[in-house]
Amino acid sequence: MHAKELLSALYDGRFDDALRPVYGAQGLKTVYGRIESVVHGFCQNFDPNETCDVTVFSAPGRTELGGNHTDHQHGCGLAGSVDMDTLACVARCDEPTICVLSKGHNPVRVDLHDTEIHTSELSSSSALVRGVAVRLRELGGDAGGFNAYTETRVLRGSGLSSSAAFEVLIGQIINQLFCGGRFNSTDLAKVGQYAENVYYGKPCGLLDQMACATGGVVAIDFADPQNPDVQRCAVDFAGEGYALVIIDSGANHSDLDGEYAAITQEMGAVAQFFGKSVLHEVDEAEFLRREDEVRSALGERPVLRAEHFFAETKRAEAQYAALKRGDFALYLALVRESGESSETKLQNVSVARPDGDRLLRVIRRARELAGPTGAARVHGGGFAGTAQAYVPRGQLEDFVSAIEGEFGEGCCHIVQIRNVGGVQLI
């Protein structure tokens, strides 16, 4: 339908049944305004006469709940999609070109005839769009031209996986407009990972894309990465008396691909020492028996990072089991263990640059303010970006006031788990 008709139907409540499972009844009026904004943005930039048939898509960010840097070694992880998402208003076009204009950014244009990997596009949105389109075609789907205008609440460089949300968004647009919806959430997650690995140039695992594509809280075993075992788990943090707070440290992590790659490379080097490709394939008992040999061959940090992997992947499984049993105290104890391991063994909470210890300072202050019954840890990739805190709800106001007073107004984001992944809303 055309933009004017769509907005009229929106405010008449005709899409409420589709929007309510995604945003909840309490958030619908806010969502109306966000959809109106993204539709108007599309019309201003692509359809001034409002003659196009437009659709609206959404893809959520994600919060990592357990399994810090385990997915790329085929371990276990725990993550949840959140209510901070990216919206897109979209219409097909006749040209074989995808054009994506994100609010506040230059437009991204990708010629669908060009399937090459371009070094000039590494670490760019263009690479992600091209990679997703190419991969869906390779898998037997189709990809045609379209224009899209997007607005996002997923903070870039924040550990909420803005790149994975973008990949899932583009994948779902192509899937619905040109492939008849044939690809499921796992397919789209793998497509996003392919685009990021091959075209974008970042050797990420699959955890972020799976959380963004699937929705809800998901426990994922990546032992078989082509067919990951995904289990859903119902969680109500507020019902347990806690608020989940993501804290933007103010130190952006979007330029730290080399630091993330080093984790993958060093864990991979330990696996290769044992003749394996990833640490999941290495027998932990043998690793422990020969730890000194590995240390002599590779150095201390790869060994510590391998130690982190073996403990963290089991810890993620234990977190999931604790949530399933309703043992939230044990879950939080495991969150604290995870945070300590990331700091001391994985070593992804600081980096050698002027603001390189800012995230570490945020984590330690959040841990202090959350108190002995709360928890705080690195969130996502680490080095900069964000911290994650579980704050007793009775302490939330004082917590936010203190953190924002020290690290900047608006740095705290209280997030809710969203039970729907990447989706066509309208």
CATH classification class of the largest domain: Alpha Beta
Report the average pLDDT across residues.
93
* Largest sheet composition: 8 strands, mixed
- End-to-end span in angstroms? 9 Å
Number of DSSP E strands: 12
Question: Whole-number radius of gyration?
Answer: 21 Å
Count of domains? 2
Task: Provide the succession of SSEs.
Answer: HHHEEEEHEHHHEEEHHHHHHEEHEE
Which architecture of the largest domain would the CATH scheme give at its second level? Answer: 2-Layer Sandwich
Helix content: 40-55%
Our estimate of the beta-strand percent is 15-25%
The CATH topology name of the largest domain reads Ribosomal Protein S5, domain 2
How many helices? The count is 14
Q: What would you call the shape?
A: globular
Low-confidence stretches: none
List keywords for this structure.
single chain, 426 residues, alpha+beta, Ribosomal Protein S5, domain 2, Alpha-Beta Plaits, 2 domains, globular
What do you see in this structure?
- With 426 residues, this protein is α+β, with helices and mostly antiparallel strands.
- The chain has two domains: 3-233 and 419-424, Ribosomal Protein S5, domain 2, CATH 3.30.230.10; 238-414, Alpha-Beta Plaits (2-Layer Sandwich), CATH 3.30.70.890.
- 45% of the residues lie in helices and 19% in strands.
- It has 14 helices and twelve strands.
- It has helices at residues 3-11, 16-23, 28-46, 125-138, 162-178, 185-200, 207-214, 257-273, 284-289, 291-298, 300-325, 328-346, 358-370, 396-407; strands spanning 55-66, 76-92, 97-102, 108-111, 146-152, 217-221, 229-233, 242-248, 375-379, 386-392, 412-414, 423-424.
- Strands 1, 2, 3, 4, 5, 6, 7 and 12 form an eight-stranded mixed sheet that branches.
- Strand 3 (97-102) and strand 4 form a beta hairpin.
- Helix 4 crosses helix 5.
- The longest helix has 26 residues, at 300-325.
- 50% of the residues are buried.
- The mean pLDDT is 93.
